[in-house]
Amino acid sequence: MEISSKENIHFFSNNTILPVDRSSFKSESSASKEKQSCCGGIKIFLGALSFVYFAKALSGSYLKSTITQIERRFDIPSSLVGVIDGSFEIGNLLIIILVSYFGAKLHRPRIIGAGCLIMSAGTFLIAMPQFFMGRYRYERFPSTINSTVNISPCLQDKSQTPFSALEKTHAKINAGCEKEAGSSMWIYVLLGNLLRGIGETPIQPLGITYIDDYAIEENAALYIGCVQTVAIIGPIFGFLLGSLCAKLYVDIGFVDLDSLTITHKDAQWVGAWWLGYLIAGAISVLAGIPFWFLPKHLPKPESRKDSSTSSEQSKFITEDNKEQHKSYQEQVKIAEMAKGKPLEFFSLTNLFGNPVYILYLCASIIQFNSLIGMVTYKPKYIEQQYGQTSSKTNFVIGLINIPAVAFGIFSGGLIMKKFRINVLGAAKLSLGSSFFGYLLLLSLFAMGCENSEVAGLTVSYHGTKWTTDYEQALFSDCNSGCQCSKNDWDPICGENGVTYISACLAGCQASSGSGKNTVFFNCSCVGTLESPSRSSSAVVGPCQKGNECPQMFLYFLVVSVITSYTLSVGGTPGYILLLRCIKPHLKSFALGIYTLAIRVLAGIPAPVYFGVAIDTTCLKWGSKRCGGRGACRLYDSSALRYVYLGLTLVLGTVSIFFSVAVLWVLRKRSSPQDETLSANGERGTCGTKSRKDNFVNSDHLIQTTYWPEKETRL
């Protein structure tokens, strides 16, 4: 039903003074009671939903903080960890259609409560392998474990080793082989994360629609903003919890901590990764309890009673014309179906025929690939590049990077509101944010550390850097008389500041002390670099990285925080661009396609191929007890920097080209009149077909600034 502008003016002028309904004369006390009841119910739901958002954001960010811990505990490569990380998105996709379609017709609060229970069950399942795999075993020379037997690290003859010690060693290896099946228990971690994704699915669509249905219209945007604010706090606590658990030993409470021969700075250290999942699972259970006591329906506010249309439609369709409007809609439906062209088909063709939407969708998919891969492996990059511990890395990310992202998202929305930026301006702001963000990221190439000096891997035993064939270079004249294995990883630090893969490969003839206090003497290879004739000593553990590394790490933190803020500023303008460039009746469908594409084409594959790329930079792989490749022990710092940052920048650059194309199409389709109107404070549109088709009420736009992918970007 089309109405001309003159008819609109006449229509509104005739309805300026409306007759007062008798129902409006009901007592003020009953009205205030109903309002308080409505507000009280929705506020209880708001508090419960905010706590759920906090719980799911905490558990999701905690998983990111334990990536390296899981990799070491289960002796798996980064590519497999990427599959585990992407299983959350797979679980979410399995039931998103069912939840979105049937959820609104059922008891929404109870479905959210059931989702919380499923999410907590998945979180508990992730921690379960710790209690069935036995104690964590790391590679260590026998003399550092048992001080009663003094065995020479350099076994020039097997007869030097007491038979009982060899027997015990072989017995332990055989016992490890019998429990080798425990290494496949990473599958339970994958299934647990998959279950987390299934449980998380109903929280967002059903929770937000429940608020939108029963909240006072002018408060809906505020309530959704409160939920999102609490969701931003979740990752902060998630990474801080990861920092705390990474300091604790994996088998804390089950082993004597004084007998440990490794510290939290060692590459073999595994923190109490499982403890955080138990805490996160308990929080998810508590978060789901209130929803089982909330009603299926709340009393609707007075402004929404007896209204089957949205607020935006109700301003143009009065009570006298509602029946006519409904009959018109039915006629349109019948006409379309009679032609054999379902409305869904027209929606799909109309949506994908919009060049701005398609180009922005492509830009978002590629940019999310860049951001998700970068965030997933950022803890690993900091640990390997700058020699930082897992605990410190998680603490820095949680306390510095996440708040910068949150402040950037808020700043983007504030800029949009302050300067009343139109669609073209939103596209420029989003493009500028991405351009300067990735430009800052380019500077991180110059803020790396040199490789640690590891004899046989990054330096030769004679002091020459960058050996060509590191497997052959592990053996030298200084350790030729020792019967050493090249698969061992039991690093020691020599007096000369060089790390040796094991005491045997360092040519050490004697040792004293036990545990962390073990000292090796008469190490023939340690004295090779400075004085070949003099043998030196070494201590347990790798040497620290170069002196320039702490300063480089500070520079990295500063640039990383600025980069996170800059990239986040363009998030809200880009999302508003998406909302304003599609017709109002296609918004829900367009957002659904957008979310589905991001999850399938970015959330699932990005961690996997980033992990595969990172695995190519490994210099020393660990070995499992019964053979086979384990987790990586040492990475090539330079190669890791170029692969990690390079892949992020390449994807970011491609997304910028698509963003430029979006801006070009908008400029081409916009008219000087639109720019003049937007300069006077009115809202611009994506096309110039007719103002009538693209008109959207300003109040509705303010309410639809909710960004469902905000937690994913964090």
CATH topology of the largest domain: Growth Hormone, Chain: A
How large, in whole angstroms, is the Cα Rg?
Answer: 31 Å
Which CATH class of the largest domain? Mainly Alpha
Biggest sheet architecture = 5 strands, antiparallel
Task: Write down the overall mean pLDDT.
Answer: 78
Indicate the CATH architecture of the largest domain.
Answer: Up-down Bundle
Helix/sheet category: mainly alpha
Low-confidence segments, given as residue ranges, are 1-38, 143-149, 157-173, 307-326, 332-341, 675-685, 687-714
**Strand coverage percent:** under 5%
Task: Report the principal-axis shape.
Answer: globular
How many β strands by DSSP? Answer: 7
Percent of residues in helices comes to: 55-70%
The number of domains: 3
Describe the strand arrangement of the main beta sheet, using strand numbers.
2-1-5-4-3
- Output the number of helix runs: 28
Name of the CATH homologous superfamily of the largest domain: MFS general substrate transporter like domains
Report how far the terminal alpha carbons are from each other: 44 Å
